[in-house]
Give the backbone structure.
Amino acid sequence: MRQHIMTLDDISLRYQELIDKTDAPKIENLTNWGRHRLFLAKYFKIHDGQYTPHRIIVEFHARAFALDTTQAPDFLDQNNYIQWLQQQLSHE
């Protein structure tokens, strides 16, 4: 069963879980957008018909959030990425 992110604090736990997971695709072999997509699809409900390479719509607390991945820091920059995602999900 997929483990969704329930709180903003869960983001850092799930991030580390994905980085440490050995059966996941090699994260370093993915593009930055691929890393975003993998993480978001694993831990959030994604509105599949409504995403583009620049925008991914995720559901968090029964609300839809349009994330502009062109504004996101590099996924592998852990602190900045987590901070960015937490800020995005606490707005709107």
In short: Helices lie at 10-20, 32-43, 78-89.
